[in-house]
Design goal:
This protein is mostly beta strands. It contains 5 helices and 40 strands.
Length: 647
């Protein structure tokens, strides 16, 4: 293969939701793969950067809560994000902040749209995104890597790491720091885009204890500080401002033990312990002396912590050429503590067994049913079935269909929140039920070989989702501004996608479009029992050119158009609100140049060439956007340069 070839087009081995590692073309599930080469060509720093150009993915930015996504029209609180199979904890407003997920140690990303609740339980109602870390196994004694990134809008990122081999063990460690100086369009003290500092650390040990047993231990740490500077208060006596600092710390420790009993039988146990803490500290800053003093009130300073212990084990068996099966257990123990948690403490424990089977009577047909049964100490947990099949009788055409029942358990905040101050009165509801969904996905993928050096893939897919018992915040006493959570909403989405990809020895070109419609119970209240649809168009092109005395250079263009998003929603007093988010386009151009025999690479280019900063948005703005009729998209057009070195 030449350098430009993106292995996502070929038979990449996937592991997410599989009984055993499987080539993507043979997987019953329709898996979208984003490879390391794509990440490098885009110059993507975090998961939000990368997914902003993906089809059927919409991102929202909040300058305190971060970057969230929707997939197939379903919000991010129903999307499970995994790091090497371990769920990321620390949802704010129901979402994982994508800007907190660094890509410097990621080998590839596997995305599956539609529920994987049978395998991964709660929060996988709308889909799963699994980030696969770079391998820490070596043929040589050591490997050192370093990276540096700078962007003209105030981003500066540096990092380094290494892998070292000791007998039959490989040890890895890395440390990265991301810094953003903040941005204000009018040079005021109050910045639209808040100053931010992030630190990422990782340590891992991989050991082949024997020919049959493999052990991997990994710990990931994350620390973030966001500075929200207040408006100056100036009079004839003093000048001061109230500044808020949001401090986030996350630590996830995981132990993965794999026992290969024989060529047909495999045991795996993955366990993790995670800690997440989010603090808000408010200072009164004297703008003359620059002295800062903490405001000594409970409303101005809050702290919330979450603990998660997870262990899941699977027994995987290849019974014959036509039959495979998997049995597993999944235990999740969650606790929350803090100033905004009812009675200072909340707990929710989840115990589940699951199973799935693959039946392949011939080379053209695969059937995969599955189920999950759960006991939960706080809510009535549903029985979750699924069924999938793949059919490939027609030459070069693969048909996939999947039905899944999905669910999302109430979060600890929804159950135990106790947020009462001078302008909030929100309490949790311990009687909440789990959200339920029905999801249907069908896809057709056709492989056309034009010439020996060129292949064209045409993929057409359709989806339908319906969510029941959707949890919403409602006013129980509008006059006193008292709010709580209730199971009173429902949501539907449907749509279609078409994508064409062609590849030759020097060129990869991909172009796709999607059409997604949404509908909820707010539509019924205005007699609009129909879907509001929005289009998306995505195009990516990479071309490789050889120059004298240089490794092959790759020129890439990435384009994504997000159409106008319209609909209806219910506010917290259950009044219908008409929503409209203006359409916009993102265009990036990059050049990637490897050198020193591919031990180093330099990527540079221009992001957001069309200079999209904010767009009009009514009825659906983010919490800390700073404007009731606008939504922040980006700081603006910028140039960047990124250096990666591997020795």
């Amino acid at each position: 293969m030449s350098q430009i070839e993106d292995t996502a087009i070929f038979n990449t081995v996937v592991i997410t939701g599989e009984i055993k590692p499987t080539e993507s073309s043979k997987s019953v599930q329709n898996v979208r793969i984003i490879t390391l080469k794509t990440i490098e060509r885009q110059g993507a720093v975090n998961l939000g950067d990368l997914l902003s150009k993906e089809l059927n993915v919409r991102l929202s930015n909040d300058n305190i809560l971060g970057t969230s996504l929707s997939l197939q029209g379903i919000s991010g609180q129903n999307i499970k994000i995994l790091l090497d199979g371990v769920p990321l904890i620390g949802r704010e407003n129901g979402n994982i902040d994508l800007s907190q997920i660094n890509l410097s140690n990621i080998e590839r990303i596997e995305m599956i749209e539609g529920p994987l609740s049978v395998i991964y339980g709660t929060d996988a109602l709308g889909g799963v995104i699994n980030l696969i870390s770079k391998k820490i196994t070596l043929d040589k004694n050591s490997q050192i890597n370093a990276n540096a990134y700078t962007e003209s809008i105030g981003h500066t990122n540096v990092g380094a790491g290494g892998i070292f081999k000791f007998n039959n063990a490989n040890i890895s460690a890395s440390l990265n720091r991301n810094f953003f100086s903040g941005f204000s369009p009018n040079s005021s003290r109050v910045m639209l885009w808040k100053p931010k500092q992030q630190v990422f650390g990782s340590f891992g040990i991989h050991s082949d204890v024997s020919k049959k047993i493999r052990v991997r231990f990994k710990t990931d740490i994350f620390s973030e500080k966001i500075e929200n500077r207040g408006s100056p208060v100036v009079n004839h006596l003093e000048a001061y401002a109230f500044d808020e600092y949001y401090l986030t710390n996350r630590n996830i420790n995981s132990l993965d033990i794999n026992f290969k009993q024989n060529t047909k039988t495999n045991w795996n146990v993955l366990s993790s312990f995670g800690f997440y803490q989010r603090d808000k500290i408010t200072y009164r800053k004297d703008l003359v002396t620059l002295q800062s003093d903490v405001i000594p009130t409970q409303e101005a300073n809050t702290s919330t912590s979450f603990l998660n212990f997870m262990t899941r084990g699977t027994y995987n068996k290849t019974a014959s050429k036509i039959f495979n099966y998997q049995f597993g257990y999944d235990i999740n123990l969650n606790s929350a503590f803090g100033s905004r948690i009812l009675s200072e403490k909340g707990k929710i424990n989840d115990y589940a067994i699951f199973s799935c089977f693959e039946y392949k009577p011939n080379q053209f047909f695969i059937l995969k049913p599955g189920f999950r049964a759960t006991y939960n100490n706080r809510y009535s947990a549903p029985f979750v079935p699924s069924i999938q099949f793949q059919y490939g009788r027609v030459k070069n055409l693969t048909i996939r269909y999947a039905y899944g029942r999905g669910f999302r358990a109430p979060s600890l905040k929804e159950l135990y929140l106790d947020f009462v101050d001078y302008n909030h009165n929100i309490t949790g509801n311990t009687n909440l039920k789990a959200e339920m969904s029905d999801n249907h996905n069908m896809s057709f993928k056709y492989k056309l070989k034009v010439k020996k050096s060129r292949i064209v893939y045409i993929e057409n897919s359709y989806f339908y989702n319906k969510i029941y018992n959707q949890i919403a915040i409602v006013a129980v006493n509008p006059i006193a501004l008292e709010y709580t959570y209730r199971n009173i909403d429902f949501f539907r989405s449907n749509g279609a996608n078409l994508n064409v990809t062609t590849q030759s020895s020097k060129l990869i070109f991909s172009m796709g479009a999607s059409y997604t419609g949404v509908n909820n119970n707010a539509f019924l209240q205005v007699n609009q029992n129909k879907f509001f649809y929005t289009p998306e168009v995505r195009s990516q092109i990479s071309y490789m050119k050889s120059f004298k005395k240089l490794d092959k250079t790759t020129f890439s263009i990435f384009y994504k158009h997000n159409g106008t998003l319209m609909g209806y929603a219910l506010d917290d007093t259950r009044n219908v609100v008409s929503t409209r988010i203006e359409g916009f386009s993102i265009l990036d151009c990059t050049i990637n140049q490897p050198f020193y025999h591919k031990k180093a690479s330099l990527t540079f280019g221009v992001k957001n060439i069309l200079n999209v900063t904010t767009i009009q948005a009514t009825g659906n703005t983010t919490v800390h956007s700073g404007g009731s009729n606008s939504m922040p998209i980006s700081v603006g057009r910028s140039g960047f340069i990124q250096l990666n070195v591997k020795i």
